[in-house]
Amino acid sequence: MAKAGDIGIKGLDHVDFVVADLERSRKFYVGKMDFVLAGKSTPEMERETGERTYLFDAAKVRVACTQPIEEWSHAHRFLRNHPDGIRTVAMKVDDHKAAAKALESRGANLIGEPANGEVRVASPLGDVEYSFVDSAHKGIKGVAGKPANRHQFTHMDHITSNTRDMRSLTNWYRDVLGFEHYWDVRFHTKDANPDAVGSGLNSIVMWEPHSNVKFATNEPLHPNFYNSQIQKFVDDNGGPGVQHIAFSTGQIMDTIPAMRQAGLKFLETPDAYYEMLPQRLAERAVANLKEQIADLQREKILVDGKDNRYLLQIFMQEAALLYHEAAAGPFFYEVIQRHGEQGFGEGNFRALFESIERDQVKRGVLKED
């Protein structure tokens, strides 16, 4: 079987977010996330697509936000079926035409012919498409501003998706994109508390070793399948889709206070997590934690690792909660800093899951099957 390296993947290029309110997105990315508005769609592109796009840039982290301006546009169709959410995950390649040939040879369903430096393919992830680009964004006119970011975002660490049937997507990553198995976890909150209502998940991370691109995929786990938080995402999203993206930073202890000051909100972690943290780090043989636990507790930052390698991470509230509007969607961002640990940390993974579940219980959206 052909390998992913034959596609020529060099890394993640950008994601395309379809939104109902482009001005709100501008205020979010520029005003709160400290991105630069690096480009806008040209009049020619807008006439051709019926869409208006802004490209936000933070050095190596780029997000395009697209709003429909015509009812016949693809973006308008997307928003008829979904809240705001990611429509396209774009990867940088050496040659988009060579990538198209490699993809089609292993069964990829191309969406149109390769053109304008890009080839797009359909995926098992509902209306989420995957794009392979080898040139600058066509139809985007640059505007003044140098990409920089006070939060020191360096790259997209990983992209996580939720679906009811994980294997259809992870097998597609393997068979069509040539990705390899990287990490997996399976757990249920009833494992720790048999009396809890609870829910669970299966998760697999696939990666492309040449570029270090990582895609994580979650599916619900029984019991309580229909009311699991993964199914809740699928319901709120109008189908499977991208749940969150992790932005990597080298200064998370400075980044999170600045983000909070900008008005961003994060999932809460109970104090009990930090009371148990010294014991858990000892069990995981992490004796080189540079940060003070009291400082981590103040900012609600999670820690996980093994054998003196660790990572720090925190998760923002989903957009629907940030804006108090269901149409803003269930997507959220993660901020992560790695100190040698390249995995995903089952302890933090479980902590995220339980944090979301606590919030759903509080809001009355988690019930028994």
Report the C-alpha radius of gyration, rounded: 20 Å
Mean pLDDT: 90
What portion of the residues fall into strands of 2 or more residues? 25-35%
- Per the CATH scheme, the topology name of the largest domain is 2,3-Dihydroxybiphenyl 1,2-Dioxygenase, domain 1
Share of helical residues: 25-40%
Shape: globular
Number of domains: 2
What is the second-level CATH architecture of the largest domain?
Answer: Roll
CATH class of the largest domain: Alpha Beta
Distance, first to last CA: 42 Å
Poorly predicted tracts of residues = none
Strand order of the largest sheet: 6-7-5-1-4-3-2-8
How many strand segments?
A: 16
User: What are the secondary-structure elements, in order, as H or E?
Assistant: EHEHEEHEHEEEEHEEEHEHHHHEEHEH
Structural class of the secondary elements? alpha+beta
CATH superfamily of the largest domain: 2,3-Dihydroxybiphenyl 1,2-Dioxygenase, domain 1
Number of helices: 12
Largest beta-sheet details: 8 strands, mixed
Characterization of this structure:
28% of the residues lie in helices and 32% in strands. An 8-stranded mixed beta sheet has the order 6-7-5-1-4-3-2-8. The protein has an 8-stranded mixed beta sheet with strand order 10-11-12-9-13-16-15-14, sandwiched between helices.
